[in-house]
Design a protein that fits this description.
Blueprint (H helix, E strand, L loop, with lengths): L1 H19 L3 H18 L2 H17 L3 H18 L2 H17 L3 H17 L3 H17 L3 H18 L2 H17 L3 H17 L3 H17 L3 H18 L4 H18 L11
Length: 274
């Protein structure tokens, strides 16, 4: 029996390594083999952890229904085990699935239930993420003031935890919400704060995220050159890391440059008579 438990741990470890490198098929194979070991031993805690990993891998690879099935099985095991913190995490994961599907009311219900449990277990890090998730739901439902309140709650917790990445994210999300309200100066101030924090942390991806929203602000204000300059940096980062929005942002940059050319046409050619 211990051999099989040890094998499950090793398979999960290998799966996590593949997951971190974006090798989702290989990760899934490892987790599936680990689950076979867990079912043979009847180790419910190990089984819950492995099922959670399978749910995560399905979620990031777009297999929402499979992820839902895995998370539901995890939830049942966690209820049997009385694992309130685990239940809160799984409810949050189920909320993420519904948010990815654009089912905002269902996502909100999961998030609020998760928040209630995680408040009881004093999991401040998980609460900080949940407040951000609830901010997204409120923003997508057009409840901008409530969204900002949730993001500010997240910001306070991220600061308390010393999570600079989370602080940068919160400022960017507040800025994005201000942008939707056409409060451009507020949006720019928030995104510049986000960018500065990310730059100090040498976090290229978060720096790019802040620049992306700033570019939108400048474009909406008609500051096309500033928007194009920032978007060029974003596209460079997209290309470096092969991010999903590379093509979309490249096309947007081309359109911006075309608008700039129309706004500032080249002077007519004059033949020299010298």
């Amino acid at each position: 029996m211990p051999l099989r438990n040890g094998l499950s741990e090793e398979l999960n470890r290998q799966g996590n390594e593949h997951f971190a490198r974006g090798l989702y098929t290989e990760a899934y194979t490892c987790y599936a083999k680990a689950l076979e070991c867990d079912r043979m031993t009847g180790d419910q805690r190990a089984m819950a952890a492995t099922l959670g990993n399978l749910g995560n891998i399905c979620a990031v690879s777009g297999r929402r229904e499979s992820a839902q099935t895995y998370y539901q099985e995890v939830l049942e095991l966690q209820k049997i085990l009385g694992d309130e913190k685990g239940i809160g995490t799984t409810l949050g994961n189920l909320g993420n699935l519904r948010a990815d599907a654009g089912e905002w009311d269902r996502a909100r219900a999961y998030y609020l239930e998760s928040l209630d449990l995680l408040t009881k277990t004093h999991d401040e890090a998980a609460k900080a993420v949940l407040f951000s998730d609830l901010g997204l739901v409120a923003r997508e439902n057009g409840q901008f003031d409530q969204a900002i309140q949730y993001y500010e709650h997240s910001l306070v917790l991220m600061r308390r935890l010393g999570n600079q990445g989370g602080v940068a994210d919160a400022w960017r999300m507040i800025g994005r919400t201000f942008l939707l309200q056409k409060r451009y100066e507020d949006a720019i101030a928030c995104c510049q704060t986000s960018q500065s924090i990310a730059e100090r942390s040498r976090d290229e991806l978060r720096t790019g995220g802040a620049r992306y929203v700033l570019a939108q602000c400048y474009e909406d204000q008609g500051r096309l050159q500033e928007a194009a300059d920032l978007l060029e940096l974003v596209v460079h980062m997209d290309r470096k890391y092969q991010l999903p929005k590379l093509e979309e942002n490249t096309n947007r940059l081309i359109q911006l440059r075309a608008r700039l050319a129309e706004t500032n046409p080249a002077p007519p050619y004059r033949e020299s008579h010298a």
